From TrEMBL:
Pfam families: Ribosomal_L7Ae
Listed SUPFAM superfamilies: L30e-like
Family recorded in the similarity comment: Belongs to the GADD45 family.
Protein name: Ribosomal protein eL8/eL30/eS12/Gadd45 domain-containing protein
Domain Ribosomal protein eL8/eL30/eS12/Gadd45 positions: 22-101
Gene3D superfamilies (alphabetical): 3.30.1330.30
Amino acid sequence: MTLEDADTCDNHTHEMHPVASALEQVLDVAHRRGSLTVGVYESAKFMDRDPDSVVLCVLAADPEVNDVALNIHFTLIQAFCRDNDINILRVSGLQRLSEIVEPMIGPSSEPLDLHCILISIHHNNPWKCSSLEEVFNYCAECRSRNQWIPFMSLMDW
């Protein structure tokens, strides 16, 4: 298996929710490539340093959580992403997101801040991923239906 084979995503293996499955695969490939940034503060620092490499911003919060500070962060991040043509995907289901991301990153003494996750592709080291294209297509489809910030629930699968 070559590095290129290892970085190729095939989202036809999951049956439940194709975009949620595609997102899980994208997170896995991004982590293996060192292209995953986790945390609101870490994401803000990365976007300030290299906004051109960010291709997807995942904002996660469960609907029952009403955190004013988090909403302010989300508003600022969303504005930055729109200004820099970065795809945004809002998700609910922090528990499921934690089940996906924490095994990739490993144990930590502090809880992970999964409210903001960035996927970046460095122009000198591009990668192809059909699952990433599927997430992009979902975002574009939502925007075409005037849902400017696409939303998906991870709790449904």
